[in-house]
């Protein structure tokens, strides 16, 4: 028996003894019975959330996988126009480590954006003409232009922003939310994942570790909802099995699992049964939730023509709104295709068009339904792009390599100040000059808005108490209301 399993058995035996012999323990058990959706701690040092009054009930995270260029979207740098084609000053680069894709270049010519910028709204937010719909909601958004990370390649960077660590095996942000807060809808998972079809760069991978439960109970892992007739694999009953037969099977299996648990005290037995029971309830709730046939034409028109095509970003934004209406706690939407090392002016237009109208429609739709006040929407990638061209620079064409030192995201919804830009980068768009925001700071802030103290939500594993923000992270209070 491993030390971890011994610790778990000891904890379980201690709880059983405590509940048997303590009136307080019996009272706690009774309270647990009437609060079935409350998350359970795995050791006495873990404090169940919410730790304070939350500002939002749910998160919709629109992850733009591949890293959209901040210099083509929200961080306008006229200096690059004045110095087009000149070499990036070494004093600005500061000896930064580069990827293998551009480290061998003999020069690093500065590339101004091929797209025009202007200021919009009372906030005078800089927005590129790549994103005309975003201009309509400039005063709804909080731009964070000083995001930064340590990781310079996609896999560790995406893993880091989703799980708090560059190496797979840690629980994802949605799993931590599920573990710490439980579910508000017993018929749907607390954590749902939507994968949209790539518009460019279709071979860029997204791995299941990004929505994994890691070492916390598997009932908290993200559940992928796919497009088509079978949105959740193996959810439907096989031929010859009706709902009554499935119910009888689950009841018998639950009794066997209960008997086995008494012998081995393995908490995963309980998680497995919870997953089976959830799947049983989802057989009716998922088709109803994902049915968009009753949406009026006005909704489809708002989200754009792609919203009628299953699996597109627009269709998934519409599904995200429907899931928010059903009180799914964490909705993670991945849209890949933003990795533009070459042919950026052409390819980024394709990507921008695929997300612009639908992203704005989602925010407007949430607002008109009264959901934006208690929903947090996050939009952004895993790092930024370089201010110099990867490969040959011409007036018509260029590419941009990965850049971890600074990038832009935006947030909107409950608890977030609207119509502001936070953080600044230098005139080259290369380094942060004011109010840096680390990935762990972003994670801590999202958890804070959900009513969670990121330092208190922990899970004991291999003798250590882990948390999403590891040993770092601070809440970015200036962007909060």
Task: Return residue spans where pLDDT drops below 50 for at least 5 consecutive residues.
Answer: 16-40
Topology as a string of helices (H) and strands (E): HHEHHEEEHHEEHHHHEHEEEEEEEEHEE
Strand content: 5-15%
Fraction in helix: 25-40%
- Give the beta-strand count: 17
Q: Helix count?
A: 12
Describe this structure in words.
The chain is an alpha/beta fold and 481 residues long. It has a single domain, classed as Alkaline Phosphatase, subunit A, CATH 3.40.720.10. It contains twelve helices and 17 strands. Strands 1, 4, 5, 6, 7, 8, 11, 12 and 15 form a nine-stranded mixed β-sheet that branches. A two-stranded antiparallel ribbon has the order 2-3. Strands 9-10 form a two-stranded antiparallel sheet. The longest helix has 25 residues. The N and C termini lie far apart (50 Å). 43% of the residues are buried.
């Amino acid at each position: 028996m491993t030390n971890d399993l011994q610790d778990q058995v000891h904890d379980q035996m201690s709880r059983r003894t405590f509940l048997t012999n303590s009136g307080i323990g019996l009272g706690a058990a009774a309270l647990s019975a009437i609060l079935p959706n409350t998350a359970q701690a795995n050791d006495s040092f873990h404090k169940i959330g919410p730790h304070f009054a939350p500002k939002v009930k749910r998160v919709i995270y629109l992850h733009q996988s591949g890293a959209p260029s901040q210099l083509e979207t929200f961080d306008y740098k006229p200096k690059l126009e004045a110095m087009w084609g000149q070499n990036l000053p070494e004093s600005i680069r500061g000896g930064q480590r580069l990827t293998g894709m551009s480290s061998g270049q003999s020069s690093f010519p500065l590339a101004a954006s091929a797209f025009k910028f202007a200021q919009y709204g009372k906030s005078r937010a800089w927005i590129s003409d790549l994103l005309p719909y975003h201009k309509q909601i400039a005063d709804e958004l909080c731009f964070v232009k000083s995001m930064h990370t340590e990781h310079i390649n996609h896999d560790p960077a995406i893993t880091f922003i989703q799980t708090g660590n560059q190496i797979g095996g840690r629980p994802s942000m949605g799993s931590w939310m599920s573990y710490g807060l439980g579910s508000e809808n017993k018929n749907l998972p607390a954590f749902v994942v939507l994968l949209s079809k790539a518009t460019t760069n279709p071979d860029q991978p997204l791995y299941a570790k990004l929505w994994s439960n890691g070492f916390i109970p598997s009932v908290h892992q993200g559940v992928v909802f796919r497009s088509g007739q079978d949105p959740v694999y193996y959810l439907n009953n096989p031929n010859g099995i009706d709902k009554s037969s499935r119910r009888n099977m689950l009841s018998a299996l639950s009794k066997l699992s209960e008997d086995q648990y008494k012998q081995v005290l393995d908490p995963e037995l309980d998680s497995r049964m919870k997953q089976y029971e959830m799947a049983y309830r989802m057989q009716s709730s998922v088709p109803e939730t994902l049915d968009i046939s009753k949406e009026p034409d006005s909704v489809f028109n708002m989200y754009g023509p792609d919203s009628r095509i299953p699996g597109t970003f627009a269709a998934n934004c519409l599904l995200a709104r429907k899931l928010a209406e059903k009180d799914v706690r964490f909705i993670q939407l991945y849209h890949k295709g933003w990795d533009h090392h070459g042919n950026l002016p052409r390819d980024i237009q394709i990507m921008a068009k695929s997300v612009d109208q639908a992203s704005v429609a989602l925010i407007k739709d949430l607002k008109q339904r009264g959901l934006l006040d208690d929903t947090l929407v996050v939009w952004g990638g895993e790092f930024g792009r370089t201010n110099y061209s990867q490969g040959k620079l011409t007036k018509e064409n260029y590419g941009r390599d990965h850049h971890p030192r600074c990038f832009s995201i935006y947030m909107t919804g409950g608890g977030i100040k609207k119509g502001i830009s936070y953080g600044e980068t230098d005139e080259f768009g290369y380094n942060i000059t004011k109010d840096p925001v680390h990935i762990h700071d972003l994670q801590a802030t999202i958890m804070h808005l959900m009513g969670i103290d990121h330092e208190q939500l922990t899970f004991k594993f291999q003798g250590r108490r882990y948390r999403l923000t590891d040993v770092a992270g601070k809440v970015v209070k200036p962007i909060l209301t």
